[in-house]
Write a structure and sequence with these properties.
alpha/beta, L-2-Hydroxyisocaproate Dehydrogenase, Chain A, domain 2, six-stranded parallel sheet, three-stranded antiparallel sheet, globular, binds 1,4-dihydronicotinamide adenine dinucleotide, binds oxaloacetate ion
């Protein structure tokens, strides 16, 4: 079992480290374009194996996709992160070309790989990778919902002073400020969250979640990596261990939720075949309106991508 992570930056290195520590593969290959960066980070990581007690061999390469050949899962994190004052959508001009080129290289050497996109703007970069890879949509999808729900769950755990392990939640829509946390599908050890928290406090947590990425960008001058890297690794785990986990994943819709030809965050079953099922939960009118609004925001960025004409 070989897993590749493209991008040896903050998110890619964190993701590779989580994959190695969980021993999800015999070998993890990290690829970057910066000479020496992936080799250095992989070597440093590998030197934690005797301390953290794992066998997964971590190797770094510079632009050498032959070394990634036969990967079963590939996580693509390459691309610019945003800086304070930017939106994720502002990254499209640089990241679309990077994601396209990287996907072509990945597919050339690992035609059967399941591809998880992390680069932003997430929903549209996943669409770009899907069009480039020309693979079935159960094998090309994006990571955002696992991260966004983790933020929502962490904020709730803090407010309620309970274990984050006991917070179950669903969040749908695009990976932007229009994302849709769903209180009606949020429970604390089976108890509806609305029984445990005042409405204004819950609304404040929902707002904080929607802007959770931006909060970290403002604090650090670049975007987050610990939770994003761990979230992508959790998706890899569900696939390689065939766990059939239900996660919100950026998936191609084919009529579900009344939408087509758009990648959007929806709950799916994740197992060895990638997305094994898109789950259609019942949404009330207000929730459906919010989801449609989020889809409209994603569509406007898809139009920018189409206008760039880099995929034809
Ligand atoms: N989907 C999500 O929830 C999240 C997405 N992100 C996104 O992930 C991406 C990476 O973020 P960071 O790791 O913080 O950035 P970073 O700047 O630390 O790392 C990006 C790496 O990509 C490499 N790279 C650029 N072009 C490449 C190419 N053609 N081939 C291989 N490597 C290439 C760079 O050399 C750099 O090392 C950004 O676009 C960011 O917005 C970040 C956090 C969460
Ligand atoms: O906020 C960003 O630019 C990075 C990201 O997607 C996140 O942390 O949610």
């Amino acid at each position: 079992m070989k897993i590749t992570v493209v991008g040896a930056g903050n998110v890619g290195a964190t993701c590779a480290n989580c994959i190695a520590q969980k021993e999800l593969a015999n070998e993890v290959i990290i690829v970057d374009i910066k000479d020496g960066l992936s080799e250095g980070k992989a070597l440093d990581m590998w030197q934690t194996a005797p301390i953290n007690y794992y066998d997964t061999r971590v190797k770094g390469v510079t632009n050498d996709y032959a070394a990634t050949a036969g990967s079963e899962v590939v996580v693509i994190t390459s691309g610019l992160p945003r800086k304070p004052g930017m939106s994720r959508d502002d990254l499209i001009a640089t990241n679309a070309g990077i994601v396209k080129m990287v996907t072509e290289n990945v597919i050339a050497h690992s035609p059967d790989a399941i591809i998880i996109i992390v680069s932003n703007p997430l929903d549209v970069m996943t669409y770009a990778a899907f069009l480039t890879a020309k693979k079935a949509s159960n094998k090309v999808f994006g990571m955002a919902g696992v991260l966004d729900t983790a933020r929502y769950r962490a904020f709730l755990a803090e407010e309620l002073n309970v274990s984050p392990k006991d917070i179950q939640a669903l969040l749908m829509g695009g990976h932007g400020d229009t994302m849709v946390p769903l209180p009606r599908y949020t429970t604390v050890a089976g108890i509806p969250v609305t029984d445990l928290i005042e409405e204004d406090k819950l609304n404040a947590i929902i707002e904080r979640t929607k802007f959770g990425g931006g909060e970290l960008v403002n604090l650090m001058g670049t975007s987050a990596w610990y939770a994003p890297g761990a979230a992508a690794a959790q998706m890899v785990e569900a696939i390689v261990r065939d766990q059939k986990r239900i996660f919100p994943v950026c998936a191609l819709l084919n009529g579900e939720y009344g939408m087509k030809d758009i990648f959007l965050g929806v709950p799916v079953v994740l197992g060895k075949n990638g997305i094994e099922k898109v789950i259609e939960v019942k949404l009330n009118k207000e929730e459906m309106e919010l989801l449609k609004g989020s889809a409209e925001a994603v569509k406007s960025v898809m139009k920018v991508l189409d206008g760039m004409k880099i995929l034809s």
